[in-house]
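Format notes (please read before filing issues)

Several people have asked whether sequences and structure tokens are stored in separate files. They are not. Every record keeps both together, in the order shown below: the sequence lines, then the token lines. Line labels are part of the format and must not be stripped during preprocessing.
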Amino acid sequence: MRRYRSIACAMKYFEDIEVGETRQLTSIKNVTRDEVIGFALQFDPQPFHLDDEAAAKTHFGKISASGWHTAAMTMRMMVDDTSGEETAGLGSPGLDSLRWAKPVYPEDTLRCEVETVSKRRSKNRPEMGLVSNLVTTYNQHDDVVMTMESIVMIALREPDSPMEE
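Then the structure lines:
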């Protein structure tokens, strides 16, 4: 069961985020065959995600996780991470890019790194800023398996402060 931080912990707002900061997430994911097949059955039922013989005939060589499964596992690690302060996040309007660099296989162990690449205040919503993060997911061999540039909406501590030009 996940334990949630108390309200008394320090909150990290838009003003506290620095472009260039990088976080190694403490969460890791051990990928199981049952999870790979279960996800594929429900969301991406292609033969190379479901069947050993079919997968052996592809460039994957064996059953591999759907790229969408890799993205979902990455998101879960980001949400579960407890390596830093609680952030005043307000959701996300989407991604600017998503790339699957290498397949993820059952028995792989995944970890993530998040680098803040840019930030700006919202022109239409003065109570929030937009932060772009480069999220890189690695396997146990430190091979990059996925990258994405995610955009996160984060509350401002002082929304009435003047906007920088």
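For reference, the curators noted about this record: The beta strands are 11-12, 22-30, 86-87, 94-100, 109-121, 128-138, 144-155. Confidence is low (pLDDT under 50) at residues 1-8.
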